[in-house]
Structure prediction request, 414 residues.
Amino acid sequence: MERVNAQKIVAAAKGFDEIVRHTPLEQNRELSEEYECEVYLKREDLQIVRSYKIRGAFNFISGLSAEEKAKGVVCASAGNHAQGVALTCDHLKVQGTIYMPRTTPRQKIEKTEKLGNAAIEIVLTGDTFDDTCKEAVHHARKNDKVFVHPFDDDKIICGQGTVGLEIMHDIKKMPDYLFVPIGGGGLVAGVGTLVKSQNPSTRIIGVESTGAPAMHESFKQGKVVTLDKIDKFVDGIAVKQPGALTFEIAKKVVDEIVLVPEGEICDRLLKLYEDGIIAEPAGAASIAALEQCKDRIKDKRVVCILSGGNNDIDRMPEIKERALVYKGLKHYFIIRFAQRAGALKSFVDKVLINNEDIVLFEYMKKTQREFGPALVGIQLKNKEDLAGLLERMDARKISFTKIDAEGDLYDLLI
Prediction:
């Protein structure tokens, strides 16, 4: 018998109580007008823990035997999975040990503590998630406790699949496209299984960030792939390796995987914020993917799973930065100014003539007699203005180096 199927997902939903909300499926007017189609958002950011992760955690832990519950559970997470496990442990009166990297922001630690109350213990260890996870698994085995995997487990997948069950229940007509963010693959495996069982013609589009395309690469190679390096910015879906079980299921139910640049996700996140929706980067990923598919979704019925809204306010400056750089509105240069009076004023008066704005200026070396190199950030009104800016700098024989936003120098200096 299949480890994950529609019947098991339906059964998982019947076990939910007040701890798991049936979240709204809302048609979004702005997105519908922008892409000339019907766009619906599945608002998992409105869960108690502000993400869908509570579904899998509750389905898994509630299904344990009395003996297993008495021994306690263990998980490793720096974010939404930890909060889902914490709230479930408090609700079911199960003792939980949650391992989190030492680099986890204090805000996330405190929120997890609050959700778990006296039912959980948080252990901070390791500088990376991989190190933390190894410690958590070791603790679980040593103490004969159950490890709650964040995605690669049939009970977890069936719990996450209830998102799809609610979508199919609430939508008036079957969706043509369903966009689902992919990290380890638990959500897309569960949702895809349920939706395909009810309407095989719905195209399931998995969405990953370009900096962490683990499932995409696994699809290409026909096996589970472990990436050497990832961009962790879209942390909710940034994993080096998808699950073995989720990969096998995804191969059957996912029609296509779209890769979306981190900058485009940031830009969409800011637009959502302007519309009153607070999403996390992973939550905005499925919506950001619409831009790449705009020609084929025209006049179609589209659902995007807004998977979470746990966004740390301290990240907003970086989110704005990535969005501006991606849109071509913000650029950085190392400019070697002549060490003479009026050099900077001349640059401002003669080069920045289209209302360009200097947003960063920092001398990098102050010992040279003839030239003083400075790190300069310039924000444009329109991305098309860059060509004219470069031409004026060349015409005035200004010595400069443009910093590539994808290069090591950018990561080092900005």
